[in-house]
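Deliverable D4.2, example record:
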Amino acid sequence: MNFQNIKEQDQKYILHTYGRVDAALVKGKNARAWDADGKEYIDFTSGIGVNCLGYSDPQWAAAVAKQAGEIQHLCNYYYSPQNTALAQELCQAAGMAQAFFCNSGAEANECAVKIARKYGESQGKWKIVTLQNSFHGRTLTTLAATGQEVFHKDFLPLTDGFLYADAGDLDGIRSLLEDAVCAVLIETVQGEGGVVPMDPSFVGDLRRLCDEKDVLLMLDEVQTGVGRTGHFYSYQGMGIQPDVVTSAKALAGGLPIGACLVGEKLRNILKPGQQGSTFGGNPVACAGAREVVRRVSDPAFLQEVAEKGQYFRQRLEALPQVELVRGQGLMLGVKLKAGDAHDILVQCAEQGLLVLTAKDLVRFLPPLTITREEIDAGLDIFTHVLREVNEK
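Output generated by the structure prediction step:
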């Protein structure tokens, strides 16, 4: 099928929930992809931060294929060695105690909400504080947790019990904690909110406040986790330990998986029948995730991510059309002096570069394995597009 056939099929049979770009990708290798008509792209999206080892990584593909040839799925009544091994390896890499596996970041955040309410139940606490400008998913409950009204519109009423505070406003959060609050849920970098990093001192102060008030500190690391910021989880660069961590996107390198990790004080907080997922802990996804965790948790790998992120940032900051760059590691957003971010995205795709947006910023989430050569090739295209925009 050529591109036009694919586009017509999409328009007829798929709900129009995505604003598509005119490209149908059919194969890839690391940070390069090719569409149905043979056009080559440099991909700075990695499937919105999912393909952390790039496209078609041979070791990852071998691990997945091997497991698919042995047993592809089993009922959660039975033990799965891929599932139990991943839980151990992930908890050890994260400094956490236990894991619940599901299929997505939204499901992981739903699990975190249930854990928080179970924790607060005996004290009559059930509300959760999140931050303005946050994003936690698209289910009705995670939409309610999301501190952006634009995502609430058309789906009211949402799940009750969420209070919103401004990032950095510790006094504002403190005042909300008197209102039957059992947990605070934040992103360390607000990805969909415009790649806005939290100040580490604020996160540290928040940890101490939550301890003082016996409130859980829960971190949504769906986008920031699994090496994206140059740490396996971003909080490991902040000197704090959360009570709950949610993870997804990059965790299985391209297969659907989510995880909700709990610390020691929450060990066994949920009992049989209180949470579940038919596909959660699927052995094929777990096999892919084990390869990711093994590789990405290596300190040398993480150091390379940090170095490539710094190189990426320096090249972006040197562009005269760029007003500012923010983010951490290989999670970067660029605010331009001129031009609409979405228009830039479309023009970049036409020129052979795939990028993302976040509010009014152009956003970059390349594979963690991207090479300097691929960074340069993509940024050369980006530079060319910005020059064209400014010449018009």
